[in-house]
Design brief:
It is built from one helix and 16 strands. The protein is mainly beta. This is ZP domain-containing protein.
């Protein structure tokens, strides 16, 4: 804020906000009143410009940030541009018999002409894409075995087992990329329907680990292109309806691993 020929000693410096569209100058109304000044009488260099916003304690005066508006004086030096103007405020007790000399408040806003702008989105490299087609999902097979060594699979069709029996389950995929990938059990669960998308599930393995290690034991996962686990047969959903077993699997690249499931430690 620059000074003028008027006596501004002891006068609280007005607040100046240099915005992108407007210059805004705020003067405390109490200080104007103490000097006998009328806040509503103010105007800029061009007397026709007196845009004001009357707030509780201060009067805000606005001028557009444009050359040739309201007498704005614009100066550039190659690196910055400066917008300058003057606010004139008149005495409250002015009469028609005398010439009223206003108090002036010169003000200037300086803006840099140079700046750095950044794109907030990362640009990623992408190899050119030629002909692309989608292939079939990985061919996986799930088998229920009679013995704990995962031998003697049950024949196709419904299987009747007493409650508390251990289900010995094997999951395998066909030779995939010369065994470069290994099979991981991601999520194994039981439903009362044959649909793997049935929302009513009872989880046996979740996030590659047994949900309850007392009831589920993973014998192999993330080692080869087969996986094996055993689970106790209970009344999973509280009814004696038939149950169906489903497993969501993934193939893990040995070179990019790790491919071994990491289970939390359970306390006995």
């Amino acid at each position: 804020m620059c000074s003028s020929d008027d006596d501004l000693s002891g006068f609280l410096e007005p607040e100046l906000v240099c915005g992108q569209d407007h210059l805004r100058l705020a003067v405390q109304k109490r200080l104007l009143e103490e000097r006998g000044l009328n806040a509503s009488s103010a105007h800029l260099i061009d007397p026709r410009c007196h845009q004001q916003v009357d707030q509780q304690e201060a009067m805000w005066y606005l001028v557009q940030r444009r050359q040739g508006i309201c007498g704005n004086v614009v100066v550039t030096n190659g690196s910055h541009i400066t917008y300058s103007n003057i606010l004139f405020v008149y005495l409250s007790d002015w009469s028609n018999d005398s010439l009223s000399i206003p108090m002036s408040f010169p003000f200037s806003c300086v803006f840099p002409l140079n700046n750095i702008t950044s794109l907030d989105t990362a640009i990623r490299y992408q190899l050119p894409v030629g002909l692309v087609r989608s292939g079939d999902p990985t061919r996986a097979r799930i088998t229920l075995y009679k013995r704990p060594d995962y031998s003697e699979p049950f024949p196709a069709g419904p299987v009747s087992l007493p409650l508390g029996t251990a289900l010995h389950v094997g999951v395998s995929v066909e030779n995939y990329d010369n065994n470069h990938f290994v099979l991981l059990l991601e999520h194994c669960y039981v439903t009362n329907s044959s649909s793997a998308d049935d929302p009513a599930t009872y989880d046996l393995i979740q996030n590659r680990c047994p949900v309850d290690p007392r009831h589920v034991k993973v014998a192999e996962s993330g080692v080869s292109q087969r996986a094996r686990f055993s689970a106790l047969l209970f009344l999973y959903h509280g009814t004696f309806e038939d149950v169906y077993l489903h497993c969501r699997i993934s193939l893990c690249d040995r070179d990019r691993g790790p491919c071994s499931p990491v289970s939390p430690t359970y306390l006995a």
